[in-house]
Structure formats: structure tokens, C-alpha cells
Amino acid sequence: MCHCGLPQPFADCCGRFVSRAIDAPDAQSLMRSRYSAFCEQAIDYLCFTCSEKALEQNPRDEVAEFAQAARFVRLQIMDYEPGDALAYVEFKAFYIIADTLHCIHERSQFIQRHHQWKYDSGRLFEAADVKLKRNDPCPCLSGNKFKKCCMS
């Protein structure tokens, strides 16, 4: 299964985009591939898929530091509004830092420039952090206990 949650292997799903073998055909595919890039710590791809405005707001060193610190465990697409040059994806990305489950809940705006989709901006929604205990169900939804799965 790909990091993004789709049933294909990473190489046949988001890996094609992260390796830049082909461009993401739409904003949702780009969103999924960016999530997978965080999982893979593919910082070059994350920067390449940002608009200039987004890259100014999210400098490469900060993106790299965050990707290295976080263990991403689940992506949930909440809504998708496709468009020809402008599209929106609302998602929840769950990640763990120091045995605490965090959630990025964002409505992201994507723009298409020169036939390539780019992350442009996002509106964050408040999401509560949860301190995980060893015997809690793992937030990756594997069915295992946290201590036997994603615990650091």
C-alpha cells in the first residue's frame, strides 16, 4: 500500500510523481504525492511542488527539519474541489512526534502553472494533539497496539 492510503505499491502510485518520472495529473494526486514525499523525506520534491509564494512561507530547511522529526502515519482526504487552473483539497495528515499524535487539518489551494500543479497556500483548522500510550490502538489503523507498530 502506498503511504497516501491507496492500495497500489508506492512505486506505482505516488512514487512515480515523487521521482518526477511523470507529473501529477491533478491537485489531489499532487496532495497525495506530497504527503508521501514527507514520509520518504523527499525534500527536493516537496520544494519543487510549491509555488514561489509557498516556498517563501515554507523554507527548505524548515520543511526538512519537520519531515525528519515527524513520523507520518495516515492521510485522510476530506474533500476535493477540482478545477482547470485552481483546485482545493481538504485533508487530515496524522503524524507522531515524541509519542504524541498530531493532526494537520488543512484546506489546501493548488494552482496549475505550465501544466504542473503546485501547492500554493492552505487554511489550517484547529486539531487537538493526543498523547499516545503504549497499549493504545496504533493511529496508522493497522489494528496493532501502538507499542507493536509505530511507537518510536
TrEMBL record:
Top-level lineage group: Bacteria
InterPro entries: NTF2-like_dom_sf, SEC_C_motif, YchJ-like_M
Pfam family, one: SEC-C
Xref: SUPFAM superfamilies: NTF2-like (SSF54427), Sec-C motif (SSF103642)
Gene3D superfamilies in the cross-refs: 3.10.450.50
YchJ-like middle NTF2-like domain ranges (all copies): 27-122
Protein's name in the database: Preprotein translocase subunit SecA
